[in-house]
Amino acid sequence: MRQQQTIEDLAQLRQTVERVAGSTPITDMHTHLYAPEFGELLLWGIDELLTYHYLISESFRWSQEDYRYFWSMSKREQADWIWQKLFIDHSPVSEAAAGFITILQRLGLDVTSRNLNDYRQALEKRTVNEQVDAVMKIAGIEKIVMTNDPFDPVERPVWLLGNGKTDPRFYAALRVDALLNDWTHAVNELRSLGYDVYAEWTERTKAETRRFLTEWITRMDALYLAVSMPGDFRYPAEDHHSRMIDEVMIPVCQEQNIPFALMIGVRRRVNPSLRLAGDMSMQSDVSAVEALCRRNPQQKFLITMLARENQHELAVLARKFRNLMIFGCWWFLHIESMVEEMTRFRIELLGTSMIPQHSDCRVFEQLIYKWEHSRRIIGNVLADKYEKLYMSGWRVTEEEIKRDLDDLLNRNFWRFLCKA
Ligand code: HDL
Ligand code: ZN
Question: On the chain, which terminus has fewer CB atoms closer than 10 Å, C or N?
């Protein structure tokens, strides 16, 4: 083997890991971002950043106003209201609020001015393409996987006109929650799109639903099929969930040779007045994932769960099934303390054979803080592990550090898709 440059002391080791963790190009394998070709669906800029649903729910903790008062305001007025409550009246120490400050600072804006209109004017001088390029460069993001919904009336025409796969940096994931969680609505949508389906679970309905999935996976060149599931998801069961998974979704994923991604543990709209901000987490049954992996050994599953309480068991399960790839610190877990805790025991249980993070970004500039925080934590955990090896006489090389971080932040995903 070519004699590689070893790293001779611990200080140099940590500096090397920090540098490589901070610069390894990333594939962000689950986001709600869009390529510029999707027009208004691509959210960016100060007012979109401040009206991120995470910040909306946090702001209402400081307000007794009627929810409808907030929703009646313009986006700019909403942003001013949130800025006052979470940044001026109180220190922005939450993950999402601190993240906004990280964005300002990394975009070269004067954080000390605290002048929102200055920040707005600075970004308004840029085009969307300039901002997309600048943010991806700052954040070190090479590839972005979108979340794509054929039932979205704004998004659907982009695909039907053939403009969905224009930007090579952006990839599609076909997201079909309604097929599982709101079948009545899905039947109406499918029928309006020309698929001969009915609420009754007939062979024709199954065949037409498989045709829908197949046609959209092909149209989008979707990398995986994705659904989010409530925490009370049980599998196998004598219910619509299991029938749809076993008789429609998995057969199509097998035929298309793509993973099936399940994001489990959300309880939607526990406070409807908060709209998108009103969802909650709930503990889930990891044995449902175990049954999926065992009953379908040829099918690859990308799995993330929302409750902290499920994380260790899910990581242990990944030791049992190589068709299970756990990913990310999802949603309420995308906070520094949970990323630290989850990354540490995932590496201790699985080595580098998992996908430690995705951003879940909804507004483009969020890539900057969501990845800066995660890169630092993932690098620090790895450095601790390399240091432990060092004390046992094992000297990792810079090439090995680069390989490990490329696996974690990029290649494990593409290798799992058989596209590495
Ligand atoms: O269902 C999902 O993909 C979640 O990520 C939701 O979109 C959630 O609202 C979110 O944005 N989490 O970060
Ligand atoms: Zn998401």
Answer: N
